Amino acid sequence: HSGFVAIVGRPNVGKSTFLNRVIGQKVAIMSNVAQTTRNKIQGIYTTNSEQIVFIDTPGIFKPSSKLDEFMVNSAISTLNEVDAVLFMVNAQETRGAGDNYIIDRLKDIHKPVYLVINKIDQIHPDKLLSVLEQYKDALEWKEVYPISALQGNNVDEFLSQLSKDL
Ligand code: GDP
Ligand code: MG
After folding, report:
1. Which amino acids are annotated as binding site for GTP, given as ranges?
2. DSSP state, 40?
3. What is the mean pLDDT of the chain?
4. Closest C-alpha to 143, from 123, 127, 157
5. Which of 94, 100, 102, 166 is the most buried (most CB within 10 A)?
6. How confident is the model over 25-62, as pLDDT tens digits?
7. CA-CA-CA-CA torsion sign (23, 70, 72, 32)
8. Would you say the ipTM is above 0.85?
């Protein structure tokens, strides 16, 4: 199955690293997406039968100026055009205001949201449980995937799950 997926998360959680890992070349399913979203495409995952188009959406943070507000509204309008959202967090960090702001915005969009806990190569497995604990009730997650975007752990498993769901 094919579709569009927006990636959201605080700065430095690993969004670009993830995109670099899954990046492909061909784009076949562009017809039904707005020009604005088309321009934001950052990575395409391609198999023989599927394409997942990823859109990096870094601009969701608490706005403190008119310009901020414009950027945040633009990012949120992208979320309304995709089929699913990937919310990425850093397993090394505790849940903070930046995460909570994004989670609150995600509550309004009524799309499947995947919680992706990145940088698991940097933590002790016991720590993962406490990260899961912090997020498990924050939203009705479609699925939860601990991964390492840098080393590739669990990335293929996540992508094949996503392909099935889309
Ligand atoms: P973005 O701001 O969310 O796009 O984050 P980046 O992809 O730019 O990553 C920020 C930093 O985290 C970079 O130094 C990456 O190399 C590092 N990073 C990203 N993913 C991982 C990971 O899975 N494990 C480790 N150890 N470092 C990572
Ligand atoms: Mg980035």
Report:
1. 9-16, 56-60, 118-121
2. T
3. 90
4. 157
5. 102
6. 555 555 556 666 666 777 888 888 888 999 998 889 99
7. negative
8. yes
Domain that holds residue 140: 3-165
- Decide: 78 and 6 in contact? Cβ < 8 Å: yes
Nearest-angstrom CA–CA distance, 19 and 14: 9
Domain count along the chain = 1
Residue 143's nearest CA partner among 125, 130, 161, 127 is 161
What DSSP character marks residue 48? S
Contact 91, 41 (CB under 8 A): no
Query: Does any ligand 1 atom lie closer than 6 A to the CB of residue 119?
Result: yes
Ligand 1 atom nearest the C-alpha of 10 is 3
CATH at residue 37 = 3.40.50.300
Other CB atoms within 10 A of residue 73 CB? 12
Question: What six digits make up the tokens of 54?
Answer: 């990823």
**By CB neighbour count within 10 A (0-12 exposed, 13-18 middle, 19+ buried), where does 112 fall?**
middle
